[in-house]
Write a structure and sequence with these properties.
heterodimer; A: mainly alpha; two-stranded antiparallel ribbon; two-stranded parallel ribbon; globular; B: about 120 residues; mainly alpha; Helix Hairpins; 4 helices; elongated
């Protein structure tokens, strides 16, 4: 039992409840408290990262119920990595949002913190049904956040997003029911024990349940047939919300990593590596689709939204192949791409604010204010996203390319990833040169000047691509160890034997 | 009992899916509700159907599994909240776009039916 594990859930929960009751308090007080909550969460994520770095599993059993009978929180390297990634992104997005984007809705900070709570539950939970609950918590907060801000442009994408996710929840419940009806458990460690023993009629039911789970996680991660809701919804959302949503697709990827490596991993007998032979071609098709979308996008935010889909495809291809080196590379790229995409969303919003009525559309316009600063940020973000040296996206992609063993898969992955990167580069250079260089004569009213908070937040998030290169050694050691830990599912199963408090062992 | 139960779940799910594929928000909301009913019954059945049994292992030969009931309860609560939200969102869509089409507006104008003038008596 380790009570620290509840900290990343309790901190945003309590902070969010506080925000609900002080909707009419002065905005400066609400902002201070909300940002303080996010900072505390960041501190707790750092503490958990240090704890997880020794490679052991820590559990927190709710109500002191021995797993598999009670719900457990499990901390391992992967969970800690996702927590710290989310906490850093959330802190910078929150800093950006108090630069003005949180006005117009008294519950913005509460929703933001509840969203973080849902994300943290999803990363920490060791129970499949609890994962469903976590998805619902983060989704209902995200519905509210997506609709935040004035105007009617968000209604239709928001409606599509909500309806799709409700259908996704229904499918999730059906697959959970199917798996439970055969195995009689929903604890992930216990499932990893029970699934290999399934035989006879039950095998097909578990198989169908597992494949339907892949559909649900695929919807969250936005893989190809289920990705068309994303660009419209993300490009219409307020910038800090869209940047935070960069981590939402990664929740789907995290769930795929967790469930399919642990429950349907190499040791799962007849169900070993379920669905992974489907995932590889779908991932490559997603990558190709994202590149096509990026080339055809008419606004900066749409371009970045398609970049989210490109990164999902890039991440899932090595995960589907499942080698240890590939997983480590994918985790490195995961960190890099999440922060970069978040930073690009923020930069696009700043560009839109400086261009008057043209907003972030990729058309010629009068010269914008603060052009040098914004163009440098966009350059750094675009270089990191397209995967050019010397920034972190390049190292992530090189690691992914190197991790593939030679064969047909290597040919497919190398050709699509490299061609895709090249075309992404064209999309970014086209957008950047039109927006920043090709200006017409005219004068723009200086309505919304840059302030310190938004500049620092956008700058810091973009600069993480440089920080990741400087710290590439330690980060790679960590991701290597995470990949090794993920492949050793026997150690995870041992959490079932953890003694409870007050138990003689 | 199993056959009737399975048929009911099937009918609810099929109607739900049919309605979700409609182009207006009201049928979509009703379809989502029906789908969640079907899912809840399905979850309930995953603990096997038994009547008049104890929910404790070891006290009798067969038992009634209490866990799916807890799962269904959670799913009902969440489904209810989500349905309330999607109703509000549909109304907002109707108010913003003056149309309850799921895409905000119809992709093309359907020709007005001819007998309308007779009905209105003009």
């Amino acid at each position: 039992m380790n009570h620290w594990l509840t900290a990343p859930i309790l901190i945003p929960l309590l902070g969010g409840i506080l925000q609900i009751f002080m909707g009419y308090a002065p905005i400066s007080l609400r902002r201070t408290l909300a940002l303080g909550t996010t900072v505390l969460m960041l501190v707790s994520a750092i503490v958990l990262l240090i704890m997880a770095n020794d490679g052991s599993y820590r559990i927190y059993a709710f109500g002191n119920w021995q797993p598999p009978f009670g719900i457990v929180l499990v901390l391992d390297r992967l969970a800690a990595l996702m927590l710290i990634m989310t906490a850093i992104l959330a802190f910078l997005c929150h800093l950006f949002s108090i630069g003005g984007a949180d006005e117009g809705n008294r519950q913005f900070h509460g929703l933001f913190l509840f969203q973080l709570m849902g994300l943290n539950i999803a990363f920490l939970t060791g129970d499949l049904f609890n994962l469903f609950v976590a998805f619902e918590v983060l989704l209902i907060a995200s519905y509210g956040l997506l609709m935040h801000g004035g105007g009617t442009v968000r209604t239709v994408p928001g409606l599509h997003y909500v309806v799709l996710n409700l259908i996704g929840s229904a499918v999730f419940l059906i697959s959970v029911g199917m798996i439970y009806s055969v195995t009689g458990t929903l604890n992930m460690a216990d499932l990893a024990v029970k699934v290999p023993q399934v035989s006879g009629e039950g095998l097909n039911i578990v198989k169908a349940g597992g494949m339907m789970l892949l559909v649900v996680f695929g919807l969250k991660a936005a893989i190809l047939p289920l990705c068309f809701w994303l660009p419209r919804a993300y490009s219409k959302a307020t910038a800090p919300v869209a940047a935070l949503f960069a981590v939402m697709t990664k929740v789907g990827i995290y769930a795929i990593l967790r469930v399919y490596l642990l429950i349907f991993g190499d040791d799962a007998g007849k169900l070993a590596n379920l669905g992974m032979d489907w995932l590889f071609p779908i991932a490559l098709a997603t990558l190709a689709m994202g590149v096509i979308g990026a080339l055809g996008s008419g606004t900066l935010k749409t371009l970045v939204a398609w970049q989210v889909i490109i990164s999902v495809g890039t991440l899932l291809a090595p995960i589907a192949l499942g080698s240890e080196a590939g997983l480590s590379a994918a985790l490195f790229y995961l960190l890099s791409t999440t922060w970069t995409v978040g930073g690009l969303f923020l930069v696009s919003q700043l560009v839109a604010n400086q261009r008057g009525s043209v907003k972030d559309r990729i058309v010629t316009a009068p010269k914008m204010h603060s052009r040098t600063f914004l163009s440098v940020l966009f350059l750094v973000g675009a270089v990191a996203a397209a995967g050019l040296p010397p920034l972190s996206g390049f190292f992530g992609k090189v690691l992914i390319l190197k991790s593939v063993e030679s064969g047909a898969e290597m040919a497919w992955l190398w050709s699509i990833l490299l061609l895709g990167s090249f075309l992404t580069l064209i999309a970014y250079s086209r957008a950047g040169s039109i927006v920043f260089w090709r200006t017409v004569d005219g004068h723009l009213e200086k309505k919304d000047p840059l302030n310190g908070r938004v500049s620092v937040a956008a700058g810091a998030l973009t600069a993480l691509a440089i920080v990741m290169v400087v710290l590439a050694g330690p980060i790679m050691n960590y991701t290597d160890a995470t990949a090794a830990q993920l492949h050793n599912s026997d150690a995870y199963i041992e959490i079932l034997q953890t003694p409870m408090v007050g138990e003689d062992s | 009992m199993e056959l009737v139960f399975a048929l009911v779940i099937g009918a609810l799910t099929a109607s739900g899916v049919y309605l979700i594929l409609r182009a207006r928000t009201f049928p979509v909301v009703v379809g989502l509700t029906l789908l969640s009913y079907g899912v809840n019954l399905f979850l309930f059945a995953s603990g096997r159907l038994a009547t008049g049994q104890q929910p404790i292992i070891g006290t009798a030969g067969s038992y009634s599994d209490p866990l799916p009931q807890a799962l269904v309860l959670t799913a009902i609560v969440i489904g209810f909240a989500m349905t309330a939200f999607v109703v509000v969102l549909s109304l907002r869509n109707l108010a913003d776009n003056e149309d309850d089409h799921v895409d905000g507006k119809q992709p093309y104008k359907t020709p007005a039916p001819e007998e309308e003038s007779e009905v209105n008596g003009k």
